[in-house]
Amino acid sequence: MALPNTIDGSDLVEIEIELAWYSNQIDESPSDRLDELVSRRKRFISQQLLAGGRAALRDRNFAFARRFALAAQNLNLTYGLFDDTPLHTLTDINRQSQSARHPFDFDSLVKNLEADSVN
Question: Counting Cβ atoms within 10 Å, is residue 56 exposed (0-12), middle (13-18) or buried (19+)?
């Protein structure tokens, strides 16, 4: 489809009508739309960072997991009730790193129970 070489008055009227219709469909100003795009992009980045943090946590690389979670936290987003959040991730990192430092010694427990049952 070729573009017309000139635009006459009737074409301008049609274009103005279309622009008016589209502008009525958009309630937000351009800066509001930009803010929305930035917010969506930050949310996407946060999700990627938290996923990276969870992957590092599964590999028991607590330092990297913490760095990912803190980077997500620095985006200063608000999260929904069921969203993974930097705080949840940091809590899980702290819990797992504590249990890694103080592992549960099942063998000692069994020996202690056996010794108690003999006495």
Answer: buried
